[in-house]
Design goal:
Length: 343
């Protein structure tokens, strides 16, 4: 039985015996990644601020890290016989660093550069996913398409699910959560728990209340639901939703295949939508006992206004995307108070 870390990361499930020469090549790659990571750490420690002084400075740093990632992906793809446990994990960590770099500088960059950088990150993740699918044994994956019946099991025990949507793939892990439920009020009290990722999958006409903090939230195949959630320390990833109201707080929120949904958000970076239509945005309005402390500890206590600066990956023109709009004030929920006891 796999341990938690290997079960939640398909790219770290493959290992093989190699001769000393191949082992030496693999170690050299790991050393390069380790040295690059240490250089980034020293650079961060020397900066007095996480933000850069100019767009040119940011773009240069972004480009350098991008080229390093492309180089490492190419090396893995060109020498699959020397593929080792942890190689893809290290490249994935570099992409995460690139994404964090962009998030820290979003407020200071022109919108075109933000959109272009987001597209670059998306392409890198797609390239890494393709390499992982080639190298990791296929039995570790369970493939499902958008056309899959809703009554199919969303997650197989001990196996991640690769959900293919359009030209994208999103890996959903076997995490705690609410799955395959209809017409229920679903409440989870996260306070006092060391909660990692939380999944909402295959829900219909439900009301979901997540009170407290989580590390990340995955939302997939949800119809006509209301989802009210406290802050997530990392990301909220949403795919294939329709007719829903979401009240969410997170450092990053990515939305794929959403239709006729309203999003009330507190987010540090620009929300990202893709293959979505008739989605509307408004500021976060959730209230529950202790939410101010939860937001403060998650570094989401400040309203930045980013909820209204949505980036549409499929709309790169200078004018605003027609796929999203700001929810008119007279239609907004001004304040929403939830608790565990009134469920």
């Amino acid at each position: 039985m796999e341990d938690h870390n290997s079960a939640s990361n398909p790219t770290s499930m493959y290992d093989q015996s190699v001769d000393p020469a191949l082992q030496k090549k693999r170690q050299a790659m790991i050393d390069r990644l380790s040295n690059r990571h240490q250089a980034r750490v020293r650079s961060k420690e020397s900066d007095s601020s996480p933000s850069f002084e100019s767009t040119d400075t940011f773009l240069a740093r972004f480009s350098d890290l991008q080229q390093s990632i492309v180089s490492e992906i190419d090396k893995i793809e060109q020498a699959p016989e020397s593929f080792a446990k942890g190689d893809l994990d290290n490249v994935s960590a570099l992409i995460n660093d690139l994404e964090k770099l962009l998030a820290e500088n979003t407020y200071h960059l022109p919108s075109y550069d933000v959109r272009a950088s987001l597209k670059t990150i998306s392409d890198l993740r797609e390239s890494l996913d393709k390499v992982a699918v080639k190298l990791v044994p296929k039995k570790k994956f369970s493939f499902k398409t958008k056309a899959a019946k809703q009554n199919q099991k969303a997650i197989v025990e001990e196996q991640p699910e690769v959900v293919v949507s359009g030209d994208k793939s999103c890996i959903v892990f076997d995490t705690p959560g609410f799955k395959n439920r209809e017409r229920e009020v679903l409440v989870e009290n996260l306070k006092g728990k060391d909660m990692g990722e939380f999944t909402l999958s295959d829900l219909g006409s439900c009301e979901v209340r997540l009170i407290g903090r989580s590390r990340a939230v995955f939302i997939h195949r949800v119809r006509n639901c209301k989802v009210y959630a406290g802050p997530a320390l990392g990301s909220v990833l949403i795919d294939d939703v329709e007719g829903c109201v979401f009240v969410l707080a997170s450092h990053q929120i990515r939305i794929h295949n959403a239709r006729k949904c309203d999003f009330y958000l507190r987010v540090r970076s620009h929300p990202i939508i893709e293959d979505s239509s008739e989605v509307r945005f408004a500021p976060y309005c959730l209230q529950y006992d202790g939410i101010e402390e939860d937001l403060r500890e998650s570094r989401l206590d400040e309203e930045t206004g980013s909820w209204a600066n949505v980036d549409d990956f499929k709309w790169l023109r200078a004018v605003q995307s027609p796929n999203w709009s700001v929810l008119p004030e007279h239609e907004r929920i001004s304040s929403l108070h939830v608790s565990i006891s009134d469920s």
